[in-house]
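Preliminary data (for renewal application), shikimate-3-phosphate complex.
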Amino acid sequence: MRRHLVLTGLPGSGKTTVGRKLAAALGAALTDLDETIELATGQAVSGIFATLGEPRFRALERSAMQGALDAPPHVVTPGGGWIAQQGNLEAARQAGALLVYLRVSPETAAARLAGSDSRPLLAGDRLGAIRQLLAEREALYLQADHVVDAEPPAEAVAEALRALLAGSPAAP
Ligand code: S3P
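Predicted structure:
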């Protein structure tokens, strides 16, 4: 790869699943920021929110992204809130990353996350919380270089993304 590829979008948009499939198809490495943070701290994201608080999580997230951006170009999947923290989008752009927004409806995102309680920001009314996050963040998600329909199954989204990148002179 010539530049990093950063997948962004709501929780439940399929960033990690699509990212893994795409990285495998491209023969590229992948950094999943939540996983990196969990490995580094020995705590689940939900535990970090509960014991250390969201600001500490966001600081860990920022430095995990910096570590990923400092590595050779590869696929990076941050959590859905990474883009909403001031300076993060600019840092990725400065590092030359290509950003792709995996767009899904709040209904699809909520359905995909049914039965999962690992997202501290989505406790309680999950669909309502996702709608709220989308309202707060969509303008930022839309600043990505490409918007990809992520309603289809992950395999199809990864393939669509691969085809899009293959046809783009600015591709990673
Ligand atoms: C968050 C999304 C989560 C995780 C954390 C916060 C958010 O990642 O980073 O719970 O603010 O949207 P996913 O987008 O992978 O669920």
